[in-house]
Amino acid sequence: MDEIVNKVAQSSLMVFDLEDYFPDNHVVDLDISQWLLEGFILKESDFRTQLKHTDFSIYQDKYVALCCSTDAVLPAWAFTLVTVHLAPFALKVIHGSKKAAIIEWYQDILNKLDYTDYFQKPVILKGCSKKPVPNEVYTLAIQKLMKVSKSVMFGEACSAVPLFKNK
User: Rounded distance, CA 73 to CA 40, Å?
Assistant: First the structure.
């Protein structure tokens, strides 16, 4: 019998897996409706008092997505004031959804990565993920990989879709 050979393992093919950088519990959302009267009405003095008595240290080293889950009409300063209280603890505060904060997380991570291992090599941008990597992040990643790689495919080694080939 002939020995089974894993040609993928023997190739110079590199796998870039965005799931390796997934923030897990480093990105959280914070709903400011908890500090509004009945979740809808901002009474400035009460709002300020509640913020002063909130322990924001639980957001230490996190990306925090500020949102309001109700249809309250809020002045812009409301989110800014919450940010003032969060900023000494959080790595970053984003006004928007948790998904937007995850995309921001990836943007920052992808900007700091060293891509020299992928230089002039064929790369697979791994597409199957157990974690909810937003589709927008793949758009960010391909732009980084195109600058250094020989080629980029999407998916798995057994069924990759060609995306880019350096000329």
Answer: 8
Mark 67-93 as b/e (b = at least 16 C-beta within 10 Å): bbebebebeeebbebbbebbeebbeeb
Mean per-residue pLDDT, 2-15: 66
pLDDT in tens, 101-125: 999 999 999 999 999 999 999 999 9
Residue 43 Ramachandran class (φ > 0 left, ψ -120 to 50 alpha, else beta):
beta
Give the whole-angstrom CA distance, residue 81 versus residue 133: 30
Sequence spans of domains, the chain: 7-23+113-165, 25-101
Within 13 Å and on the Cβ side, how many CA atoms surround 8? 9
Contact assessment for residue 161 and residue 124, using Cβ atoms and an 8 Å cutoff: no
Q: Which residue has the tokens 């999407």?
A: 154
